[in-house]
Design a protein that fits this description.
CATH superfamily of the largest domain: Regulatory factor, effector binding domain
Number of helices: 8
CATH topology of the largest domain: Multidrug-efflux Transporter 1 Regulator Bmrr, Chain A
Shape: elongated
Number of domains: 2
Order of helices and strands: EEHEHHEEHHHEEHEEEEHE
Distance between the termini: 66 Å
């Protein structure tokens, strides 16, 4: 039974059932039982003691607000197992102490931890607190990134709504993307080339350029032009893009290569890599309108 006091508080009242298990040595002799009744009362006391130390799967489900189907699945993957299973009828029972384990599972699921991650935390033994702290810290950073992305999406959404209200196209932002025809000279590149997932570009950008700049400092090399990223994939793939993170330098050292892009279209933009599709579209349209054709090497695109 739940008694709700609005607007901010909820009082939860749990009704308890009492039976013969309330009989104690201090109970007046007038209501004590003898003979067969006393033996039956002892048996009942033992049974009710069992019921007060374990919960049926239905009771456990009701308290934790988790379906019995889900509890059976959790048992199947050994996330949380029943403390008792009746061998005669297969009924499942959970210890009262397991309520805290279930509450932990519910809590971590609310943070979008996977069941596998939750299982590893629960099974971490003596390192439980340390593992839990590290996992929560990582999840906090993940959520911060998600909030940042959601905020950017919200701002973009507001921008699009504003444009539509003012009679502009939702793609009017393309008008702000400038295209310039440039001749890119021969360069000597110090680079790292690898397959990169689309959603990992920001992280790989920092890691790869950090390594390149570290080598430049260590070997006292000279940077000739701003860093660039070259995409070598013929098409988009969910397995990642063939990506080269490069810094033009003046010296020829182990691992450098010549790069000559020749006549190129240049666009300077600020923002995330998600805008690149819009840049490609604008450059292709510009080339068509101005009588230019892309070479067979168009898949290798540099961004200064």
């Amino acid at each position: 039974m739940i008694v709700a006091t609005f607007p901010a508080s909820i009082s939860v009242i749990m009704r308890l059932k009492f039976g013969l298990s309330n009989v104690t040595p201090d109970t007046p002799s007038s209501i004590k039982k003898t003979g067969l009744e006393k033996r039956l009362s002892a048996a009942y006391l033992k049974r009710t003691t069992f019921w007060f130390t374990v919960l049926s799967i239905g009771e456990f489900s009701k308290i934790c607000k988790v379906s019995t189907k889900t509890l059976r699945y959790y048992a199947e993957i050994e996330l949380i197992l029943p403390s008792e299973i009746n061998p005669e009828n297969g009924y499942r029972y959970y210890a009262i102490e397991q309520l805290e384990t279930m509450l932990l599972i519910i809590r971590l699921k609310s943070y979008n931890f996977s069941l596998e991650e939750i299982k590893r935390i629960i099974e971490s033994g003596e390192l439980y607190e340390e593992k839990l702290y590290a996992a929560l810290t990582r999840k906090r950073e993940d959520i911060k990134k998600q909030l940042h992305e959601q905020e950017k999406s919200l701002n973009q959404l507001e921008y699009d709504i504003s444009n539509l209200k003012n009679g502009k196209s939702i793609l009017s932002y393309l008008d702000d993307i400038d295209v310039e025809l440039v001749e890119v000279p021969m360069m000597c590149l110090l680079s790292i080339r690898k397959m990169v997932q689309a959603n990992n570009f920001s992280d790989e950008y920092g890691v790869c350029f950090g390594r390149l700049l570290g080598r430049i400092r260590k070997e006292n090399l000279t940077i000739a032009n701003p860093p660039m990223v070259l995409f070598h994939s013929n098409e988009f793939s969910p397995f990642g893009l063939d990506t080269e993170f490069a810094i033009p330098i003046k010296e020829y050292v182990t691992g450098t290569r010549d790069f000559k892009a020749g006549l190129c279209l240049k666009t300077v933009v600020k923002g995330s890599y998600s805008i690149l599709s819009s840049v490609y579209a604008k450059q292709i349209k510009w080339a068509e309108q101005n009588g230019y054709m892309f070479s067979k090497q168009r898949r290798t695109t540099g961004f200064l």
